[in-house]
Write the C-alpha cells for this entry.
Amino acid sequence: MPAAQIGVTGLAVMGRNLARNFARHGYTVAVHNRSVERMHSLIAEHGDEGEFVACETLEDFVGALARPRTVVVMVKAGGPTDAVIDQLTELLEPGDIVVDAGNALYTDTMRREKTLAARGLHFVGSGVSGGEEGALLGPSIMPGGPAESYATLGPMLEAIAAKAEDGTPCCTHVGPDGAGHFVKMVHNGIEYADMQLIGEAYDLLRQGLGLTPARIADIFAEWNRGDLQSYLIEITAEVLRQTDARTGAALVDVIKDQAGQKGTGRWTVKSALDLGVPVTGIAEATFARAISSQTAQREAARGVLPGATVEFAVADEAAFIEDVRLALYASKVVAYAQGFDQIRAASDEFGWDIALGDMARIWRAGCIIRARFLDRITEAFTRDAGLPTLLVDLYFAAEVAGGVPAWRRVVSQAALTGIPAPAFASSLAYYDSLRAERLPAALIQGQRDFFGAHTYQRIDVEGTFHTEWSGDRTEVEA
Ligand code: NDP
C-alpha cells in the first residue's frame, strides 16, 4: 500500500463522507476514529470506493501518511478538537499540515494556529458547508491558514469541492489564520437570515392571504425559476408540499414552531457587535429563533396582549404575492450586504485581505446558501472591490429600488395586521437608515453630551465641542 496522501480522523457523518470523497477522487486516504468500530464500518461498507489505509491508532495513522503529512480533523467542535490536535501535535513533524474542518469558532482557530505555528506545524482552519451530502458529493470549502499550506492542500480540496455551473471549484484560500472559519461563520449567519426571510414570506401568504401550504409550495417553486433561485427556496417548496403520514395534514402544520440553533448565528452576531457592524438581518433571524423557543413568554402573552384590529385584506391577491417576492428579494440583498460588510470589517481588523467576490464565488455550489444571485455579487465586487456596500452596486441598487414600493407595502401590511415580520421590517429600516440625509444620531450625541460630557462634532466647524449643560449652556471647544 502506498503512503497515504491525506488522512481523516473523526469518521462520524462528516468525516466519513469527506474521506470517501477524497478516495473517490483517487487519493489514498488514511482513516482513523477514536472508537475503531466507525473506522472498520467505513472500510467494510465503502472500502471498494477507493484506496483507504485503515488505522486503529493515531500512531499508525500518522505513520501511514506521506511527508509532509496532511491530516484532516473532523471531530466534535470545541474540547474534542483541542484534545485531538494536542495528541497529533506530539506525533507530527515540522512542515506537516493539520486541517480542522469542523465548525470551530474563529478565535479558537487563531489560538490553535499560533500554538501549532510555534512548533513548525501548519494549521488550517477550514469551513466546510453542505452537510452530510455535501461532504460526500462536493461541499463548499473555505480554508484559512498559511498561504503556503494551500499549495499542497489546495489541489486536494479543490478536487473534492463542489463545482459551480462554469466548472470552477467552490474552494479557495480565504486568508490567513482564522479567516476560513470566520467566513464559514458568516455564511451560517446569512443562512439564518435567508431562512427567516423565507419564513416571514411564507407567514404572510399563510396567515395573511390564507393560502394552503401546497399552494405556497407552488409559489416558491415558481419563485425558484427567477431571481430568487436558490437551494433554500427549492427545499422550502419541498417542505411545504410534504404531507404528514400520521394525520394527513401538511407536515409544516404538525411541526412545533420552535426553531433550534446550534450557535453559529449567535457567534456571527456577537462578532458583529465586537466589530461594530450592523448585521440586522442576521440578528433578527437569531432573535426570532430565540423568541420561537420562549414558550412560557409566548403562552403568557397570547392570553393577555391584544392583536391588530385591522383585518388582513388585499384587493389583488396576485399583486400581493408579487409584493412579497420583491420584499423578500430586497431584504435578502440587505442580509448579504451586511454579511459581506462583516467579512470586510474582520478582514481589515485582522489583516486577512479577503477577496469578497471570491467568497460569493465559492458559495455558488455545495453550500446551503447557494443561489443564482451569488454570481451577481461576484460581478459586483469584480466591478469594484472597494464597494462601500453591495446595496450601491449599480445592479443591486437598481434591483432593490424596483422593489422598494412593494417592500414598504408588505412591511406596513404586516404591521397593520399584526403578522410579525422582524427581518423584513428591520431590513427596510436599515435601507432607509443608509439612505437618510440626517439620522437622529445628532440628538443622541446631544443627549450623551448632556449626561456624560461625551462631546460632539458640528456640521459647520471642525473640532470637538461640549455644551455646559449644567452651567450657562455656552458651547466650549473640548
Ligand atoms: P460530531 O460533531 O457528532 O462528532 C463526532 C465525532 O467526534 C466522532 O468521530 C467522535 O468519535 C469524535 N470525537 C468526539 N469526542 C472526541 C474526543 N474527545 N476525542 C476524539 N474524537 C472525538 O460529528 P459530525 O460528523 O456531525 O461533525 C464533525 C464536525 O464537522 C463538527 O465540528 C461539526 O460541527 C462539523 N460540521 C458538521 C456538519 C453536519 O452537517 N453534521 C456540517 C458542517 C460541519 P467517536 O466515534 O469515538 O465518538
Notes: The chain has a mean pLDDT of 97. The chain has 20 helices and nine strands. The pocket of NDP is lined by residues 10-15, 33-35, 38, 74-77, 80, 83-84, 102-103, 128, 131-132 (CB under 6 Å). Residues 468 and 474 are 6 Å apart (CA to CA).
